[in-house]
Every structure is written in structure tokens, then in C-alpha cells.
Amino acid sequence: MTGATTIITGIGELMTQDAEQRVLKDAAIVLEDERIAWLGPAANAPAADSRYDAGGRACLPGWVDSHTHLVFAGDRTAEFEARMAGQSYAAGGISVTVDATRRASDEELGSLVAQRVAEAGANGTTYLETKTGYGLNVEEEARSARIAAATADELTFLGAHLVPQGWKADDYVQTVTGPMLSAVRPYVQWADVFCETGAFTPDQSREVLRACRDAGLGLRVHGNQLGPGEGVRLAVEEAAASVDHVNHLELSDIDALAGSWSGWEGDPDSRGTVATCLPACDLSTRQPLAPARQLLDAGVPIALASNCNPGTSYTSSMAFCVATAVLQMGLTVAEAVRAATYGGALALHREQTTDDGGRLAVGSLAVGHRADLQLLDAPSATHLAYRPGMQLTHAVWRAGQRLR
Ligand code: NIG
Description:
This protein has 2 domains: 5-61 and 364-402, Urease, subunit C, domain 1 (Roll); 63-347, Metal-dependent hydrolases (TIM Barrel), CATH 3.20.20.140. It contains 14 helices and 16 strands. It has helices at residues 77-84, 94-103, 106-122, 138-149, 169-184, 202-214, 231-237, 251-260, 279-285, 292-297, 318-329, 333-340, 342-347, 383-386, and strands spanning 5-15, 23-32, 35-41, 50-53, 58-61, 63-65, 125-131, 154-160, 190-195, 218-223, 242-245, 274-277, 302-304, 373-376, 393-398, 401-402. Strands 1, 2, 3, 4, 5, 14, 15 and 16 form an 8-stranded mixed β-sheet that branches. An 8-stranded parallel β-sheet has the order 6-7-8-9-10-11-12-13. Helix 4 (138-149) links the parallel strand 7 (125-131) and strand 8 (154-160). The relative contact order is 0.16. Bound molecules: N-(iminomethyl)-L-glutamic acid. N-(iminomethyl)-L-glutamic acid binds at residues 69, 91, 93-94, 97, 194, 222, 225, 281, 307, 309-312.
């Protein structure tokens, strides 16, 4: 070891979420600069420059939140209250946030995004994706992308979030795939489309996805959120990295997702489409919970993400998502933690260190992976579901740096 090292000792239970999915008791982990240099039984641990005593607490990978919409101003309390009083969610509320976001200055918007990323970090999220989608014209989408690029780990272009008032859908799609895509391209790695009745049709969605892929972007889809539809099948056909929401699935959707992973042996070139479940959103919109159990049983890798946004899911708490997945969606604690760590990394194509070593794997704890980890104020991860709603984040390291 050549860099500065820190050893965390006294770990009661360490969940690796690596290929072996080990659960080590009485463990220690050594961080060297931004990487994990060693982990294993505390009795065998090497010496290090500094030492942190975990006091018997559980250690997990930091959460990987693969679906958020953090670039916004304003809130939608009134819409939430109306929904709780019985109104159904309609994506039209997006335009309320678009108006508030356009009114915010660069400084305000930048500081709102930074505060939200910091809040997520303090609650154990060490790798985070966010999206544009509340700008909805060329200048505002580019501004959102530029501002978010300063703080988010991964950034997605969601110009195709809603057809703005006063536009014809086909004209708007031409703008999204033309000048808007060119304007955001320097800042983003991914593109997404809201393929749903009331947003974009399957044909329009496909056009957006193909143009974005031709521009070199990875693909994601918002699909099957408010009713059955073509979103999942479109995502699989276009080889999207993930399809998110997945509340209303038919067996053929689950088969298509499972089929996208047939033959996958861990190599990056043959990844399929991850199903990303967003339980906080499902509860807040009173949609049926995504069938996470059925997806896992069919062999579909799933991710759990917060979908933090002002309309359908105003929380970045991944611990809440994990607790809900266990208490309401039939996942074991180990499955839910895996979906919120490794699953998110898989959905972002960050589960492996790149060949040139330039981007370290996140979402699992193994030698050489990025030192992104959290200690819970509890002896085991089971407490995330056993004590739902409690603040259990005790300490967080991101790329070897202490965040909390
Ligand atoms: O993921 N489904 C579309 N987009 C967001 C909601 C956006 C909003 O209502 O502001 C979502 O739930």
C-alpha cells in the first residue's frame, strides 16, 4: 500500500454485495485514498495510518441512487394534499415545477441541487444519478444540465419529460432530438423519455431514444408507471440500461426483461435492462407497488431508487425505499440492500471498474472498488426494516472521504 490508509475495525456485520455476496462478522476494511485496499476478518487486518472503531455497527456499500430529478425549484404541497384527498396523479403537475425552475437564478438552482445531493450523502447515498426535465426548452434544459453536471455523478437528459404547453408533440420531439440534444450533449451521459399516455407515445419515445443513442448517450426509459403500456418492451428493444417505475407489468414485460439478461455472465457488453423500482413514488402516487418479488423470481436484476422529485416522491431516503421493499414488496433485507447498492450500480453501468481503471466500481465492497461505504447505527442491516423511519446512518465515506 502506498497511499494514506484508514482502517475501520469493530464492524459487527459487513455486507459486501460483491459477486460472492459475503456477510462477514467481526470484520475490518482498509481504505487507501479513494479505493478499498483490503477487507476481511478483523483478526487478520493489516496496519494502517489511522483507525476508526465501528463499535460493532453494520457496514454496507453506500447507496447508489440511480433515479432522481433534483434540478428543480418550488414544491407541490398543494398537489400532494389533493392527491391524499383522493385525486389521482396526472403528470400535468410537471409544468408547475417547470415554471418555478425557469424563474430560479443559476445560483439558486445550483445551491438547491447541491443541498439535495448533500442531504442524500448524509443519509448514505454515495453515488447518484439525476436528470434534467424541468426546463423543457433548449436554453433551460441546457442550463439545468450545466448546473447539475457540477454535482451529480451521472446526468441524464430528460427533455422528453412532457410536451410543454403550446407545443405540438411532433414539433417538440424534433426540438428534443435536434437543438436541445446538441445543447445538453456536453454535460450528459444518459437520455431518458417518459413513455406513457399523456406524455410521449411509443413511436415518439423511440425516435427520442434513437437520436440520443446516435449522439453517444446511454438510454433509460420511464415506463409502465400509470398503466400498462409499451415502455418496458421499448426499453428492451432499444437495449436501455434501465426501465424505471414498472408498476403495471404484464407477464410478457417480465419475460422480455428476463430475456434481455439471458446469456449475461457479468461482462459489460451483454448487460440487459434493469427494472428500477421506486417504492417511495409508488406510495406517494398510490400506484400499485412495482412487482419486485416477481421480477427477481423471474431472474430480472432490479434496482431500488428514490426518484426524489417535487411531484411524486419528495424524499431521497434510500433507507425508506429499502424498508418499504422489505415490508411491502416481499424482498428479503439482503435483496433490498443489494437492489439499492449493486442494483443501482448495474443500472448505471458502474458495477465494474473500467478496463483502463479510470472509473472504479461502486455499489459493492471489494478490493479495488471505490471506497463508498456506510456504517449503520445498528448491528445488522435487518434494522433498516425492523426499525423503519429511524435515522440509522452513523457514518459515510465517499471515495475514501468522510461525508458524515
Ligand atoms: O419519475 N414520471 C415522470 N416523472 C417523475 C415525476 C415528475 C413530476 O411529477 O414532477 C417521476 O415520477
